[in-house]
Amino acid sequence: MNAPAFHLVRPPVAVAPLLSVRNVSLEYRTEQRTVRATHDVSFDVFRGDRFVLLGPSGCGKSSLLKAVAGFIAPRAGSITMQEKIITKPGPDRVVVFQEFDQLPPWKTVLENVMFPLLASKRLDKVAARERAHHWIAKVGLAGFEYAHPHTLSGGMKQRVAIARALAMQPEVLLMDEPFAALDALTRRKMQEELSRLWEELRFTLVFVTHSIEEALVVGNRILLLSPHPGRVRAELNSHQFGLYSGGSAEFQAASSRIHGLLFDEDVVPVQHEDQPQREAV
Ligand SMILES: Nc1ncnc2c1ncn2[C@@H]1O[C@H](COP(=O)(O)OP(=O)(O)OP(=O)(O)O)[C@@H](O)[C@H]1O
C-alpha cells in the first residue's frame, strides 16, 4: 500500500487563534511526590475548529483540558483565550465529561439544562426555560424534559450534558472522552449527533480521546501526545475524514500512520515555532 498523502498545510497568517496553549507543563503535587502530567505542550485552536487531543492513557489529555477549563493552573507556560490569560473557570469554556453522574440526579432534564444559565446569571428564569427547551429538542430529547437522569440511558444522559453545555453558548466546548463509557453503537450514534450539531452550529470544539478512529471521525485537527508525561508528537490535519470514511483505504492508512506516530519511540517531538507547520494525514 502506498504511504498516505503528505502535505504541509499552514493556517492563514492573518487569523488569530481563539485559544492558545504555549509551552504548558502541568504538574500534580502531593506531600510524597510530584507527577508531571504534560511537558512543554503548545497548540492553537481557531474558531470553528474540531480540535482533538489524542494520546495514550496517562499522557495528560484530561489535565490539558482541565487547564484550558481553568480548573488547574500550568506549572510553566500560559493558556490564553482571545489573548486573555486563563486563570479560572468561566462560562466561555464549558466542559462535557465522560461520567454519567455529571448531572445532578435530583434535577429533571429541564432543570439540569437551565441550571448553569441561572447560576451564571446569563438569563432570567423564563428565558432560561425557553432556551433549555430549544437545546433539549436540538439534541433529540423533546418529550423528556421532566425525566430525571436515572431514568435515562447513558447516551441520553450525554445528550443532556451536551444540551446543557451548548445552551451556555460557550466560546469553546470542551469534551473529555464524552462517549468512552457508551457501547459501540451508541458511541457511533453520538459521534453522528455531534457532527450534525457542528455542521449546523459551527461551534469550536476541543475533544479528548484515546481512540484513533474517533479522533479521525470527530476532528479536523489532531494533536498527538506522547506517553506520560505528554509532549507534542505531531499535529495533523484530518478534515478530509468524516463519519462515512471509516472503511476507506485512506482512513485505514491514516489510522495506522497515527498509530505509528503515537507509539514509535523514534519519532522526534515536534518543535513548535511561532507559525508551526502542520501535516495532513
Ligand atoms: N489529581 C491528580 N493527582 C495526582 N496525579 C494526577 C491527578 N490527575 C492526574 N494525575 C496524573 O497525571 C497524569 C496525566 O493524567 P490525565 O488524566 O491527564 O491523563 P489522560 O491522558 O487523560 O489519561 P486517560 O486517558 O487515562 O484519562 C497521570 O500520570 C495521572 O496519574
UniProtKB/TrEMBL annotation:
Superkingdom to which the source organism belongs: Bacteria
Molecular function via GO: ATP binding; ATP hydrolysis activity
Keyword Glycosyltransferase attributed: no
Coiled coil (residue ranges): none
Keyword annotations from UniProtKB, A to Z: ATP-binding, Cell membrane, Membrane, Nucleotide-binding, Transport
Start and end residues of each ABC transporter domain: 21-252
Sequence similarity: Belongs to the ABC transporter superfamily.
Name listed for the protein in its UniProt record: ATP-binding cassette domain-containing protein
Species whose genome carries this gene: Janthinobacterium violaceinigrum
